[in-house]
Design brief:
This protein is an alpha/beta fold. The protein contains 14 helices and 13 strands. The longest helix is centred in the N-terminal third of the chain and has 27 residues. The protein starts with a strand and ends with a strand. The structure holds adenosine-5'-triphosphate (ATP) and magnesium ion.
Length: 373
Amino acid sequence: MALYIGLMSGTSLDGVDGVLVDFGSIQGPPMTVRTHRHQAFAPSLRAELLALNAPGDNELQRAEIAANAVARCYAGVVQALLQQHGAATARDVRAIGAHGQTVRHRPGAFDGTGFTTQLLNGALLAELTGIDVVCDLRRRDLAAGGQGAPLAPGFHAAIFAAPGESRAVVNLGGIANLTVLGADGSVRGFDCGPASALLDGWCQRHRGRPFDDGGRWAASGQVIEALLTALLAEPYFSLPPPKSTGRDLFQLGWLDAQLARHSPSAAPKDVQATLAALTVRSIASDVRRHADGATLLLVCGGGALNTHLMQQLAAQLPGVHVDTTANAGLPVDQVEGAAFAWLAQRFVERLPGNLVAVTGARGPRVLGALYPA
Ligand SMILES: Nc1ncnc2c1ncn2[C@@H]1O[C@H](COP(=O)(O)OP(=O)(O)OP(=O)(O)O)[C@@H](O)[C@H]1O
Ligand SMILES: [Mg+2]
């Protein structure tokens, strides 16, 4: 038994997904999720984290206090996981792999190294849980000239690759990231562009709801082709990998600027339909360009529960079987958390967590910093 906890809170800012994972023995299955817990952020913390995505007053102090709050929220998830599982105590868990909350992501910018900021007080999390905490998992890759993202492809390969078969995995979080698993065992990956970050934001603004349940609102609208073309003209979409992005680029201000120019009087539901089409078409075009030959596309992340997105993806990719990771052994809301448990294990065993072909780093690196229990 090798128990690890993975904690992920992504750019959707919906809260934390925690998983207690058993990596078992070398002979057994690669891993088993023992238990999963989702914890929404308190509305005040969510609002503060969202605000910290953009420049504002007194940022240093506010970021530190938010990092403490994220640690307390994460610690609550750890306690809940241990309680749910029942048969393990803190001492049985080898380490926690904790992502923290990204509020800025500018790899390579400014001075050539740039920075990526995941708010989390790892010291406080170690103090509150009594478990080794491995966090700050992206910055070493940036130090080595990489994007620091996406980090899930190595884990996707470990779990979803099939020898001799070409497959793709797409995670629909705030941002969509694609992993391409070649029939020859190669692994590539990059961020495609916005997913729920824009869909949620527009839904919150016009319907007062945090997300478009099942994508029903988007499905009720008509895609505005002129607006879609303008949105797809964003240079990020045609950049070659390695590339990664976040709310630094894809937030409602970006959409508002295009709306003002192309469709100032568009009906909100038609804009939602267009945003869904933006996610679907950018991913489909990336799959065609970079995963040519893939016959299976496995979808994970909360966006996999958006029926409209799933149907449209399948429609845009004839010849590709579009399915969720749940049918490949891992529920859609557990994949990213499990990836961070996997990254903690890689750190503990001093194995690289990055893939040079994905992040563009100068070499494989052990990722993370340790706060011992
Ligand atoms: N029933 C549903 N219908 C439509 N969308 C849903 C549903 N359930 C969840 N979602 C979407 O999934 C999002 C949360 O997904 P997830 O937690 O995977 O994203 P994330 O936190 O940004 O993670 P990451 O950045 O690691 O990918 C929600 O914000 C919402 O947009
Ligand atoms: Mg989430």
